[in-house]
Amino acid sequence: MIEYVENACVIDDDPISVFGLKKTIKETKFCKEIIVYENGYEAINGLKDLLNTNSNIPPIIFLDLNMPIMDGWDFLEDFIKIPEENRKNVRIYIISSSVDPRDLIKAKSYSAVNNFFVKPVTTNDLQKVIDEISQ
Amino acid sequence: MSILSSLNYLQDLPIAITVIDLNFKIKNQSSAWLKEFPNDFNSSSISFLEYHSIPQQVKVEVLKMTESQQITPIELEVKNHLNSWYRWKLSPSFSSENNFSGIIIIAKNITEERRERELLKKAEQVAQIGAWELDLISNKLFWTDITRIIHEVPEDYTPTLEKGINFYKAGHHRETITAIVSDSIATGDTWDTELIIITANNTEKWVRARGETEIIDGKCVRVYGTFQDIHEQKLKDIAYTRLAERLKIATKTAKIGIWEYNYTNKNLFWSDEMFDLYKIQKADFDGHKSFWDQSLHPEDREFCMQKVKEAFELKKDLEVEFRIILPNGKIRNIKSVAYTEVDIFGDAKKLVGANWDVTELIYTQLQLTKSEESMQQAFENSSVGMALIGLEGNWIDVNSSLCTSVGYSREEMIQKKIIEVTHPHDWTKDSHFIKKMHEGKLTNYTIEKRFFHKDGTIVNALLTVTTVHKVNGKLSHFIAQVIDVTAMIASENKTKSLLEITKHQNESLLNFAHIVSHNLRSHSTNLSMLTNFLKEETDNGEKVNLERMLSDASESLSETVHHLNEVVHITTNTQENLSNVNLFDSIKRVEKNILALLKEKNASCNILVEKDVIIKAVPAYLDSILLNLFTNSVKYSSQERNLEIHIKNKITNNQVTLHFSDNGQGIDLKRHGEKLFGMYKTFHNHKDAKGIGLFITKNQVEAMNGSITVHSTVNKGTTFVLTFEKA
């Protein structure tokens, strides 16, 4: 069985949500490895650590918006400060329970954001991601 | 004896005459002599020399004449010691042998004559009227002293006809006098003329020269006359003529008619302008007062007659306005002013006065009165408050609308200075503009301004002030219009506060939408997701795991619903539960409750809150707020230093401000500022329930009409600034 990507990153503080996403990813055999960060702060530090040890940032990041300490928006702000060559192959997908259209509009304003999925993330959603990266 | 008889005859002569012999004995005398020189010696032989009443000078002449037997009679005028003047005639008398036998003495009393002459001379001096005489036979010119003085020549100056003529100013004056004199010599006519002479001192002088002639046998033998210095008078005359001329021009231009009325003979004099005013031909004027009477409007006639009568009877000046009817039937209004001339007996004889047309003036006055009346009406009945304001900032007049607005009566208002009824904060604004108006840089301004009502409340008004100028362009007063907007502002404030509430509620709603969209939805999402997993799950172990998660998720949902309910409760039920709470006591109580926690952190609290500050609060909310602030400080205290909390308060107007500071980790407000008081997902199944504290706190503070803001520096500390309503 060959996975589409080596690893993916989930940034979400809600363990149930993370559980659901992990389960769905496994079903689609989307990737081998899933790295989970509980909030933006943990995530940005974790990603920077990866870069410092000359590892690659996971090519897919699922990012929740509402989190303590550092939320998804703040993470995006810090993320785009990472040098371009270190993150050019990284795709960010927002996952949120929010159905507030303002959140959708704001998310689209970030060029680093590829898509916006309303929770729960389904196999269909992941199929879209797979289609995008296969092109 | 012829002599005797002649002597007897002498007694009856009507002149004072006496005859003395060589021994100066009175030989005979007339009764007239005796009357002049009464003989009180009672002696038959009286010596002429013994008369006291005969001046020494006469006696000397008698002695001389007797001694020298002089035969030429002499005449002399001498005053005696009684101040009587006599003209003495001394003639020698001769005996029948033609020998010098004595002196006939005649004394004529000329005292009266002398006095008259002296008076004349005095009069000449006093009146400064000189006299002159030209004897055409001897061709000699004689000048009196005064004439010399007028010519400014010395006393011994001898004038000649030619010299005299040459004193007249060359040209017109000299030619005139030459012509007059020669003409009068030829015709015998008298003359009276005023000409200029140049005196010996080279001064120009106006003189009046009068002349008469004496004609004998149809031939002029003598010309004589008077000579008078009229320089001053003439100058005055000229000035007067000039003035009169000017006045004439003025009255003509100003269309002022001058009249004079003689009460005695009812004669009336009118200047030309009068005819213009009355539109009457001068030729039709008969000079009688009745002429004026006829011109008067019948309704005014009696009244005018009465006024004129009064002026004469009471000798007072006349001032009257009346209507006249012009020949063309038009009516004009005339004003007449006159003064009464009183003669030396104090009787009023004449009225001298002026007439002018005041029809236009009266019409204008009428218009003015009308417009003043309508202005007054508008002023009084305006629903807008109006006032006339003096330059000193005093009310000249106020209308009832303004009085109603400020609660004072008109009388009370006028007693007050404007500054007394003006809100002190608005006075500077007002006086600034008034000053500009005084400087002429501004003609009107409109400001929002607050007045004080009599009962001390504030009257909000829209004030418009406009300047009013006098005819000469100087500031006269101000007109103020005061629109009372108190009710408007009150309703505006109500609208504002309603708007505020609405805005607030909208924000709350938005917040709720946000909360629902994030917080509630995340739970429902989880629940539905877990339920789906559970349905499809076959592994029993995994099923148990899913069920546990499902239970957690439903618990979180219930917790969130509880929080939301709490918030709804805060925002809806606070107002009625507000009570007066002592701020200091509340702080101390909360501090005591978490003393253990503070001790654990080695924290110190510095509470500098006034002990008697009472605020409007819901006690439970206040406790919750304070507890949250304390625990936040403890939770986010710095690892590197012991926690210090400073609490102090400030009182401003009707607000109490509380500063709650710590020296903890601080927070990056640039990043988190706007989210700090928001409700976050963070309060799901986290054990600390982070994120709900400040959200609840903010809601509680605002529900109690207060506010909360934050200042913070990372690694230095955080200060929350809260406001409460003062009780």
TrEMBL record, chain A:
Which GO BP terms sit in this record? phosphorelay signal transduction system
Entry keyword Phosphoprotein: yes
| Source taxon at top rank | Bacteria
- Sequence positions bearing 4-aspartylphosphate: D64
**A Pfam family of this chain:** Response_reg
Domain called Response regulatory: residue spans: 7-134
| Record's keyword annotation contains Kinase | no
Q: Which UniProt keywords apply?
A: Phosphoprotein
Which SUPFAM superfamilies does its entry note?
Answer: CheY-like
Name recorded for this polypeptide: Response regulator receiver domain-containing protein
Give the species this sequence originates from: Cellulophaga baltica
TrEMBL record, chain B:
Pfam families the record matches:
HATPase_c (PF02518), PAS_3 (PF08447), PAS_9 (PF13426)
Reactions mediated catalytically: ATP + protein L-histidine = ADP + protein N-phospho-L-histidine
| GO MF, any single term | protein histidine kinase activity
CDD domains listed in its UniProt record: PAS
Q: Which UniProt keywords apply?
A: Kinase, Phosphoprotein, Transferase
Which Enzyme Commission numbers does its entry carry?
A: 2.7.13.3
Cite the Histidine kinase domain residue spans from the record.
515-727
Where the record annotates domain PAS, the positions are 371-426
**What residue stretches are annotated with the PAC domain?**
318-370, 445-497
According to the lineage, what is the superkingdom? Answer: Bacteria
Q: What class of enzyme is it?
A: transferase
Q: What is this protein called?
A: histidine kinase
What's the source species for this entry?
Cellulophaga baltica
